[in-house]
């Protein structure tokens, strides 16, 4: 099962990524000014996953990626894939596990390693 991971960007805005069962990033969200916006959009995505559209593209370097469209708006962009088959597997993983994936919050500055 995948997971949604919330983190902070260097400019203090928030983002989330959807990671696969193997821990690879499948897509990265847009930036959000507030953390609760991230959480709300993850929940919205989980509820409305059946209406999501995946627009597939091929970069000038020959890599494949998709843009995730939800409610007519750009929601997230995938990582780059080497083949269209791998791209489709990424999409399939989102569709299969997205609605039941857990949310992990890594926005705190707490150090988990003791000196």
UniProtKB/TrEMBL annotation:
Name the domain of life this protein comes from.
Bacteria
Name of the molecule in the record: DUF1508 domain-containing protein
* Organism, scientific name: Flavobacterium micromati
């Amino acid at each position: 099962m995948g997971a949604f991971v919330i983190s902070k960007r260097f400019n203090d805005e928030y983002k989330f990524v959807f990671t696969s069962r193997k821990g690879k990033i499948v897509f990265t969200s847009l930036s959000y000014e507030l953390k609760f916006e991230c959480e709300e959009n993850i929940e919205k995505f989980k509820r409305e996953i059946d209406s999501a559209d995946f627009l597939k593209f091929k970069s000038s370097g020959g890599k494949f990626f998709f843009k995730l469209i939800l409610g007519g708006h750009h929601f997230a962009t995938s990582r780059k894939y080497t083949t269209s088959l791998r791209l489709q597997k990424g999409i399939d993983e989102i569709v299969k596990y997205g609605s039941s994936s857990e949310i992990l919050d890594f926005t705190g500055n707490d150090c988990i390693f003791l000196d």
